[in-house]
Amino acid sequence: MRVPIIAGNWKMNKTPAEARQLVEAMKDRLAAIAGVEKVLCPPFVDLASVSELVAGTDIGVGAQNLYPADSGAYTGEVSPVMLKELCRYVILGHSERRGYFGETDGFVNQKVHSAFKHGLVPIICVGEDLEQNERGDTARVVSAQVRGVLSGLTGQQVRSLVIAYEPIWAIGTGRAATAEGANQVIADVVRGTVVDLYGADVAQAMRVQYGGSMNAANARELLQQPDIDGGLIGGASLKADDFIAIVTAAAEVRGAH
Question: Annotated catalytic sites, by residue?
Fold first, then answer.
């Protein structure tokens, strides 16, 4: 049975002082929820303090990006070698990275290989925009992204990573996909593509989150779907009570009891 995973993507929010305050507000309650993998993904400047605060708990820490080189003259970038002392997970290929910074599937794939080289668990984002969705292009676009970002990986690596299906038209808009619609894309397109590439065993072992306006109100309905193994949470992860509510819903619906 796949262990559900709820990851909070704080995006470009929270100063170091604010990050400590948020973690202190949820740490004990989060740690008390069993059967769910819980991950906090703050900005780079907050990673050290968040990592320190959750030390000794089962709360994981993730970065929001990395640069696919161990070191070098890449001003402003952060390497996996720097991250691995501070976190276990890393979000790669988020639609905002693709949209604002021109990241391609090929570049995201380089990052995935770099993450694995240094023992980081990638949370890899895929998803279509509104125009692609409305013209019925979801399956083609998402399948191509999955193939691109997983290129050259072993089946064992694919089993261990996490894919976040994030319909771009639903991110930060309050317009979540329907639970059934999201589940269908994850089952037929995301897992279906992995079946083609690596076989059914790998596809069934790999966890797939839904990312796109999952919140305290709709989390339970989304997580009741058989192929949705968790959420990549944006805005709701910045509010302690909301994030706790989502993790609680995951534990009750999908968690080990």
Answer: 94, 166
